[in-house]
Design brief:
Helices cover 51% and strands 19% of the residues. The strands form 4 sheets. It has a 5-stranded antiparallel beta sheet. The longest helix is centred in the N-terminal third of the chain and has 66 residues. The two termini are 69 Å apart. A hairpin with a 3-residue loop joins strand 16 and strand 17. It is an alpha+beta fold. The protein is elongated and about 145 Å long.
Length: 610
């Protein structure tokens, strides 16, 4: 087995890369096309069935809405009819004389005829009184009778007993005809329509017992029209099946009032589903939907051949596309491989030249992205080797220079402090305590700048730094300014940015309109934040100037060095870099009165910082 693998590998090594790529591409493509074509052909049938179910479900919901709308409207009409004064009088009267019945029957029939004329989907309306008298009929045939004793045929039906046992609930049933509610035959020339009936036991308003049965018969063709217009499948059919498995409405009229042959497959636990069936030798996909409110089931029967015929056409089309794709793959793969191999040959030639020491040579760009990236990297490598060789010498020189500067940077602070100490002792010898004190404050200020690289220190240390700065400035201005500090003892160990307060004091001293005044530095705690305020009474700024200063402080660019915002932009940036965008600086000022600089930072105690 190993020998065969080695022999096969040896044979492949003798075949050009172009041939191997074309063969591999064809093999993979052939496999993918074969599997995808077979899978597509097998799944297309399922897709058609699923789409049919989805379309039918949408139709079913529309039919359900139309049907329930009609049922609710009929129920509303029956309740309205029941509230008629004459109807209530008829329900209340147990015994009527012949003349009284005729007068009442005439008024009620006039109202019934108005209903039948206005609502043309109504076939007939009846009131079957419990004493046996009946008022009602169709628009063309009055079936009323004053005869007492329940001799009317309706009283002998099981439907009458079902209505009595369901009182006062409404019963909807189908599979009936107009003649099923009449006491006489239908004359020639008049139609015997199929109806779906609303029946309910009723009583007069003041009564407690059922006094009559109210029947509203709806012509079945109006139910048919609510779903027949949605039946778009040629050769298909739709039905409405009641809870007992009987067809009460259908696009095939002869199936009405017949048991539905596939009723046993309409599983009651599923409100929507489908299954395969066969009727008269025709294979069908049967899709059903159960209406919860009525218990009726909508059924759509779709002949299977309607979509299997399309599947066959798709299969033939897929086979043709498969063969055409195979031919085009071979042709275009050969053309593209030639183009790719040309760039590869150039790259191999260039690598040989670089290997011989021909540094700095470049190759022309390839026509495709991947090989183009390789050639671009080759060109960068070829031209970059010489640059790297030259840069190595420059780098060594730079490193030596940096080492020298580092050593010098260590000498400069020592020299500066030695010089300050020299001046300090010279001042002591010359008995100049002010100069000596000024040098001491300057040294105290410079020491943390050079020897403490950390960005944070305590507020106590910040105040000490500011105090040294103030001491120096007092020598400059002759102690004309008065400084006040308001820092609670418990906040002295809170952490703050180094050198955060001094720029605000410097602005007050340099840009203040007068040098006699008070500068107050206060620190207070607000929730989880600290508010540091530098308040000076050296004269304030105009409102437009305040807006400009705040804008420059918030700007990401360096502020105007001559503006009043000198140093504040830098402090604001450092605050936001360390603590986040919700912290920073804001300036408030009243022209000729005062200026306040508000600095907000988080309250960080020393234990938390460590």
């Amino acid at each position: 087995m190993i020998a065969k693998a080695v022999k096969f590998k040896f044979r492949l090594s003798g075949i050009s890369l172009k041939a191997q790529l074309i063969f591999s591409f064809m093999a993979v493509t052939l496999l993918v096309l074969s599997v995808s074509s077979y899978y597509s052909y097998k799944k297309t049938l399922d897709i058609f069935q699923t789409r049919t179910q989805e379309t039918t479900l949408s139709q079913f919901r529309q039919i359900e809405m139309n049907t329930l709308t009609l049922l609710h409207e009929v129920d509303k009409l029956s309740k309205t009819f029941l509230m008629e004064t004459k109807v209530q009088s008829f329900l209340q009267s147990d015994k009527l004389s012949h003349l009284e019945f005729i007068a009442m029957e005439r008024d009620i029939m006039d109202r019934i005829n108005q209903y039948l004329t206005t609502y043309n989907y109504l076939d007939s309306v009846y009131i079957f009184a419990e004493n046996g008298t009946v008022i009602g009929g169709t628009l063309s045939q009055n079936q009323s009778t004053a005869e007492v004793g329940k001799n009317y045929p309706f009283y002998r039906t099981s439907l009458y007993e079902q209505v009595k046992s369901s009182f006062p609930q409404t019963i909807w049933t189908g599979g009936l005809e107009t003649i099923d509610f009449m006491r006489s035959s239908i004359p020639d020339g008049l139609s015997n329509s199929r109806v779906i009936s609303s029946l309910r036991g009723v009583r007069w308003i003041g009564g407690s017992q059922m006094s009559a049965e109210l029947v509203f018969n709806v012509n079945e063709r109006y139910f048919n029209s609510s779903y027949g217009s949605l039946q778009s499948t040629p050769g298909g059919s739709m039905h409405i099946i009641d809870r007992y498995g009987k067809v009460i409405s259908s696009t095939i009229e002869e199936t009405i009032d017949q048991p539905y042959p596939f009723n046993t497959k309409l599983t009651p636990e599923h409100s929507f589903g489908s299954f395969a069936g066969s009727r008269a030798g025709t294979h069908e996909q049967i899709i059903y939907y159960r209406m919860k409110e009525t218990g009726w089931t909508l059924v759509n029967e779709v002949p299977t051949e309607l979509y299997t015929k399309d599947i066959s056409q798709i299969g033939r089309f897929t086979a043709a596309v498969f063969l055409l794709s195979l031919i085009l793959i071979v042709v275009f793969a050969s053309l593209w491989m030639d183009r790719i191999m040309k760039s590869l040959h150039q790259l191999i030639k260039g690598m040989k030249n670089v290997g011989r020491g021909n540094l700095g040579m470049t190759l022309p760009q390839a026509s495709n992205k991947e090989i183009g990236l390789l050639i671009e990297q080759f060109n960068s490598m070829s031209t970059g080797i010489l640059e790297l060789m030259n840069q190595n010498e420059e780098t060594e020189k730079t490193k030596r220079q940096l080492e020298i500067e580092a050593l010098q940077s260590q000498i400069n602070p020592h020299f500066l402090y030695n010089t300050l100490n020299t001046v300090k002792w010279m001042a002591a010898i010359a008995k100049a305590p002010n100069i000596m004190e000024c040098m001491t404050s300057l040294g105290n200020m410079l020491r943390p700048i050079y020897y403490d690289p950390s960005p944070l220190w305590s507020i106590k240390e910040e105040i000490a730094f500011v105090q040294n700065y103030i001491n120096i400035m007092n020598f400059r201005y002759g102690e004309e300014m008065r400084f006040e500090f308001d820092v609670p003892e418990q906040l002295l160990q809170c952490q703050t940015l180094r050198f955060m307060i001094q720029p605000s004091i410097e602005n007050a001293l340099i840009h203040g309109e007068m040098h006699k005044g008070v500068i107050q530095i206060s620190v207070s705690e607000h929730g989880s934040d600290l508010l540091v305020v530098v308040h000076d009474t050296c004269g304030g700024m105009a409102a437009d100037k305040v807006i400009e200063v705040n804008r420059k402080i918030q700007s990401q660019l360096n502020g105007d060095r001559t503006s009043k915002g000198i140093g504040l932009n830098n402090v604001n940036k450092r605050i936001r870099l360390h603590f986040g965008e919700r912290y920073g600086i804001e300036v408030q000022s009243k022209e000729g009165v005062e200026t306040k600089v508000f600095m907000t930072i988080p309250a960080i105690y020393e234990s938390a910082a460590s």
